[in-house]
Backbone:
């Protein structure tokens, strides 16, 4: 069955381009020609595969939860740590997501470009059981750092610096490499800065570029249709989702912008504005639970954890201790977990007693994922295990709930 070519749109000056469909759509095959673009006045249609090609099934249990996952029965400082994979060489994990059986991540290789997300990544998975079996799904993904799961499909973005474009791709969670890797399917091409985060609200996938613009891709349509930019919080952006909305913010902007899952037009109207905390006191990174958006910031008075109630209630600013660089954050029913870069480790803040800060694990943690089974992170370092006993760079760990 052939796939229809889509149209492209220029949204507020930034064009989204469609990608030519594969001839063998039903197997998620790669496209056989150059991406095709057609400019219109409306949205962007990309050449996503039709339903019989294995597109994501959006069931109730695969949507972002209405409320967060259960809390661990143990104190985070004494929960059992399970090594899922210990890297022998050193590497830098980005974009960590989970499902009921596996952890998935984008592994950038050791060395400076990979440490900053600037090399060619592997999309990998490992069982949550701790058997250490690592499988590749895709390899050689240029500057890939953003990853999201929607049902049984994984989405990520690669970068073409010469063309100044980023391509969004997808593959099945079960599509692993043998000698060669199954070809992923292109979804659309975005002109502008690189994509640094992907988040889903049901069948709506939101993408944010490094300089701030946020786009929406409707995965329920064939071909997929994209709209945007829908917001632009500026450089060093953050993006999180609940079951009903996306929320965009940025390090240099005190606003939080809420985006409807059906939005077609851009708006930078603030849903909430965090109290003044200095020049770099916007929220980045952010996460959410069933009642609030949570964010971390390095205010002039020190590190702060900020809670913005989803019902429009007051914004709470909570002291978070010594300032550390934070690139990852996640929440469950009891704790907010913060990943501290440069040796800051994995920290857990108790929602019931926010002044309680638990140093759960040592290490250089850039990305965190949470579900009912545990808390997951990777060690971000070009170095293998050393005499000081620090984790080996590229290793993947789990705190068992």
Residues:
């Amino acid at each position: 069955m052939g796939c229809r070519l889509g149209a492209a749109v220029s949204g507020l000056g930034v064009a989204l381009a469609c990608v030519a469909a594969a001839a063998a759509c039903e197997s998620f095959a790669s496209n056989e020609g150059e991406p095709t673009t057609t400019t219109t006045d409306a949205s962007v249609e990309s050449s996503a595969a039709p339903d019989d090609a294995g597109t994501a099934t959006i069931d109730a249990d695969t949507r972002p939860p209405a409320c967060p996952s259960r809390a661990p029965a143990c104190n985070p400082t004494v929960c059992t740590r399970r090594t899922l994979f210990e890297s022998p060489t050193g590497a830098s994990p980005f974009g960590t997501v989970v499902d009921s059986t596996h952890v998935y991540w984008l592994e950038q290789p050791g060395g400076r470009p990979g440490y900053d997300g600037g090399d060619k990544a592997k999309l990998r998975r490992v069982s949550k059981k701790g058997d250490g079996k690592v499988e590749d799904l895709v390899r050689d993904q240029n500057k890939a750092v953003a990853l999201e799961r929607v049902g049984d499909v994984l989405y990520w973005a690669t970068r073409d610096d010469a063309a100044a474009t980023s391509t969004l791709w997808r593959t099945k969670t079960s599509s692993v490499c043998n000698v060669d890797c199954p070809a992923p399917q292109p979804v659309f091409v975005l002109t502008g800065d690189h994509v640094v985060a992907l988040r889903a609200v049901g069948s709506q996938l939101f993408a944010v570029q490094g300089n701030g613009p946020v786009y929406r891709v409707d995965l329920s349509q064939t071909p997929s249709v994209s709209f945007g930019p829908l917001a632009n919080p500026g450089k060093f952006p953050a993006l999180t989702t609940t079951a009903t909305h996306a929320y965009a913010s940025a390090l240099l902007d005190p606003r939080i912008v809420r985006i409807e899952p059906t939005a077609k037009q851009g708006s930078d109207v603030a849903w909430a504005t965090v109290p003044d905390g200095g020049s770099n006191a916007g929220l980045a990174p952010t996460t959410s639970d069933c009642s609030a958006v949570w964010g971390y910031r390095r205010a002039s008075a020190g590190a702060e954890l900020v809670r913005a109630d989803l019902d429009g209630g007051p914004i709470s600013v909570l002291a978070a201790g010594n300032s550390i660089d934070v690139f990852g954050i996640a929440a469950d029913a009891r704790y907010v977990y913060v990943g501290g870069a440069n040796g800051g480790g994995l920290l857990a803040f108790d929602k019931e007693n926010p002044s309680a800060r638990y140093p759960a694990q040592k290490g250089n943690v850039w990305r965190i994922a949470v579900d009912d089974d545990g808390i997951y992170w990777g060690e971000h370092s070009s170095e293998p295990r050393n005499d000081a006993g620090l984790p080996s760079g590229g290793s993947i760990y789990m705190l068992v709930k």
